[in-house]
Amino acid sequence: MDPLTQLLDGPRARGACTLHTVMSPPWAIEVRDRAALTLVVVTSGRARVTSPHGEADLGPGDVALMRGPDPYTVSDGAGRTPAITILPGQRCVSAEGEDVCLTMQHGIGSWGNDPDGEDTMIVGAYEDDSEVGRLALAALPPMAVLANGRVDPALVDLLTREITSGRVAQASLNDRLLDSLLVMAVRAWLEEDCDRCPSWLYGQSDPVVAHALDLLHDRVAEPWTLDTLARACAVSRATLAARFQRAVGTPPMTYLRTWRLTLAADLLTADPGLSLEAVAARVGYGSAFAFSTAFRRHTGVSPSGYRSRPRVEAVPS
Fold first, then answer.
1. Which of 27, 28, 299, 301 could share a disulfide with 23, CB 3.0–4.6 Å?
2. Rounded to whole angstroms, how far apart are CA atoms 226 and 236?
């Protein structure tokens, strides 16, 4: 499986918070939920997203991807003081500290300060990083904005209808539709903003390096050395090392180590019941001890510590 496919295969929402938000100006919401990733699609009117990493004005069809855990504000315009704060667990409180989750509900799946508000959005929050996948989180910037037309409006319309339908199996279908919408948005961002793409995407432009990457990703548990990888690519060690460094920005074996530990981080959170021995074997380490040593050196925490850490703390790349 190539890395881009693996990245886009990552999202797997489990009971994600999906809402049809309906607001009338003036309004501002401060989001401090520490969700791993939130997707906001404006369906009518306007919204302004402000975070420590930038700000953007959104119109109908525009999409914002907000990577946690940093807080951000969504409002109808600049200079608004938030009247509502979203806390972890999607708890909503007023500026006075009053819980307003129920008082601002308007039927199934709709929430806001006015059921007939002119500013409407679809909001989907992946609360835990295991639901998104380490690769997607590592690939995305803290804030990414996509213009109208970059995601299929038919999918947005379908998700909007399902969120407010109350039909059987609604939560399951909402999760799958949200996953599809996120995959479409991430793919569009990667195509649109190549300058900030992960280094492994650049390697696809060199056929030798692309083949080496495919081998490393498809057979990650194999005991690769620079010699065996070069032979598999039908080039010399020196040729492979030079072309790989030029295309990807790191030596092949360094890249392999980082890739293995990236996959391991995903496995640790996606399947908490998986033993360290099983994780080690899946990513090419001969023992749990060798894996734990490498993981701690790479991340600063042990595998068990990483599993039990507060959510959305990323593995250093």
1. 27
2. 9
pLDDT tens digits, one per residue of 9-47: 666 767 678 889 999 999 999 999 999 889 999 999 999
* Minimum mean pLDDT range among 11-20, 70-79, 225-234: 11-20
Lowest mean pLDDT among 126-135, 156-165, 193-202, 297-306: 193-202
Structure tokens at 263: 């996959």
